[in-house]
Design goal:
With 319 residues, the protein is of the alpha/beta class. It folds into 2 domains: 182 residues, FAD/NAD(P)-binding domain; 119 residues, FAD/NAD(P)-binding domain, CATH 3.50.50. It has 7 helices and 21 strands. A 5-stranded parallel β-sheet has the order 6-3-2-10-21, with helices on one face. Strands 12-19-13-14-15 form a 5-stranded parallel β-sheet, with helices on one face. A 4-stranded mixed β-sheet has the order 1-9-8-7, with no helix packed on it. Strand 2, helix 1 and strand 3 form a beta-alpha-beta unit. Helix 1 runs parallel beside helix 7. The structure holds NADP nicotinamide-adenine-dinucleotide phosphate. The site of NADP nicotinamide-adenine-dinucleotide phosphate has 21 residues, from helix 5.
Length: 319
Amino acid sequence: MTVPKNVDLIILGAGPAGLTAGLYGARAGLKTVVLEPKSPGGQMLLTDDIYNYPGHPDGITGQHLANLFLEQAQKYNCEVLKRAGSTTLQQESDRFIVTAGDRVVQSEIAIVATGCSPKRLGARGEKKFSGAGISYCAVCDGNFFEGLDVAVVGGGDSALEEAAYLSRLCNHVYIIHRRDRFRASDACQCLIRGCNNVSVIWDSVVEKFEGDDLLENIRLASVNGSEKRDLKANGAFIYVGQIPNTSFLSDAVATDPDGWILTNERLETSVPGLFAAGDVRKKEVKQVATAVGDGSQAAITAEKYLMMKRCNAYPGEVA
Ligand code: NAP
């Protein structure tokens, strides 16, 4: 069995919350490791340009911002293990033991910053055409649809931001939304207002995706089921929300019914010594800026917890 490497702080996930927690942990003098199953950056990597992260008045690409976050954390000796493979987290007495691929690390405190993943729509044909016309990432796959007609499903910030991105590449972008108004913020709605190759199909849902080997047609139904229509499209980008990346957590960590981790305002979870930061926790606003706030808060709380614990004085034992 691999001997676990001892560190002060383990952070699971290298998105904006995890890398910020890594920066703060390392700068506080903690031996800090961030484990990332894929590439560092989290959902920043799925975003073309980010215009609402302060300090970048002309916007910055998600990839560039992710690189800067990583560089800054590493500059202070935060160890970032990239493409570390899938993760398990166990608790043994007062230690957390994390395995990621063939690596095993242990610490007295850990921060879960594993973010979330795109939710599947659940329509017929979705699985068959995933990677053959259906995508969950316009920045990753938009180029395959240059000059073609595509659909975007959803009415939130992600759907509208990505529809605006696709409008620069594709011939026409249809937004399919199940209501008669968007959930998206005014700022994101504004992005599509000036696009003359974007149109909205209101009050409609996808019944099924059709084609031979590649997607060719989307069968739509009005929400009340009274009307059906076919929409010819080569691509469909699904943005119908997110699910938290928490499958590796034990039942001891309290979540809401949908799996989002519950924390207090100090970002403590129901398990002493375990903290959560960023999109993986239950919270209303999910932005790079709020993930950064979470990362710094979680690392500061975690560091205080560790110091108090080592003085045998946590919680509430200080005079
Ligand atoms: P979201 O806000 O949850 O929106 C999901 C959209 O998909 C909603 O319009 C919803 O319709 C629709 N939907 C859900 N299930 C559906 C189904 N089964 N069939 C058809 N439509 C369905 O998700 P998101 O857009 O991914 O955003 C997630 C979070 O990230 C939000 O907090 C958002 O503000 C944030 N975000 C911010 C930015 C930014 O500020 N630049 C960019 C991206 C994301 P209803 O409206 O009818 O519920």
